[in-house]
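Q: What does the assembly look like in three dimensions?
Context provided by user:
Components: two
Sequences:
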Amino acid sequence: MEFATFIVLMLLGYGFGTWAERRHYKSIEERELKYRNLPTIGLKQPLPQQGRVMKTQLASGNVVISVDYFKRFLASLRNFFGGRVSSYETLVDRARREATLRMKESCPGATQIINVRLETASLSKNTKKGSIGSIEVFAYGTAITYK
Amino acid sequence: MEYSGKLPTSNVNVSKRTPLKELGVLLGGLLGLCFIFYLCLGWAVDFSIQHISPEEENDLYALMKFPTGEEGKASDQTLAVQALLQELQKCAPLPYQVNIDVAESKQVNAVAFPGGHILIFSGLLDQMSSENELVFVLGHELGHFKHRDHLRSLGRGLVLWVMSLFLLGPDNDVGWFLFGALGVAERTHSREQESAADEYALEVLNCHYGHVGGSTKFFEHLRDKNQTPEILKYYSTHPSDQKRIDNLNALAVQKNFRVDVVKPWVVSTQ
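A: Here is the predicted structure of the complete assembly.
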């Protein structure tokens, strides 16, 4: 019985996880294309720009992405043998790109975002059974709008 | 300078591995390791059991609690079964006293607990068409005691549990998964034990009555009553009923045991 539950959870995790991930990547790629002309830089000084500064504001975006059962199982197997935890790589990648995109979306009309920082946190650090394993990425910077 | 954003053509942050393939490789490796480990463990347990004396075994079992039958005055049926078991122990000498209880339940089963305690369900007694049949069932449970099957499975289970705790932590997905997978292997082991206990029961039957009539009767009932689908058989602890009947018949021929008229089981339920 336990074994059957495990198989069902794995199948559900793999099915829904893959579906959600594919959808998410599609959306990320479309939006990245849309916002590609908004410079997002880590420098504290703005890029040289014609015109007068109209507005500066704090731009921020954050996202929480959860791991699915399949990925978690794969990662705990990795835990045993060691090596790159490739099942979590897409998770972190998606979270980082999504947070950056949300930050860009939070300041419509901005000319550039400077001093961009990314913070990550893992929600629920204890690995007790039943707890949620998810990652949070918070992106923030200063959005400058020129006239 | 006009800024023009360009997107990278490929994602370097994500490995190009297929997750299913990775799962296959890792899982195969882990299960292979566990299987080797499990084989070694089996040998180690079988070896060390020879060095545990019956007294030590008893001390060990004294630490555990097992269910007993109904409290209060024993029924005639219980007394009759107890007397029968007493008789049987002449044929099946064990270093400790075996006792038996009858539990009211529809289940057709009998369970041997470590430390010489047998619990027999009344559903099983109702099924008995002869005393010989009952003697066979009791002999089977005595066989488990004789072969120290409890010690064996206890040993394996314990070492497996401790290893899993050390390697994977108390509450780990992989640990639970392995338990499920190895549980199946553990059951095949206990299927061999069941067959050995059947053989022992046949010897007891022959010793008690001088013939082995009625030995396969019980399994014939079971076979006719429940038809387990083939696919489930790997998961079940006991060998299939037909297989057991065939084994018993072959063994009786091989050992030149006679088959004679069976004695009726007289005590009825009140």
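Follow-up: The longest strand of chain B covers residues 99-103.
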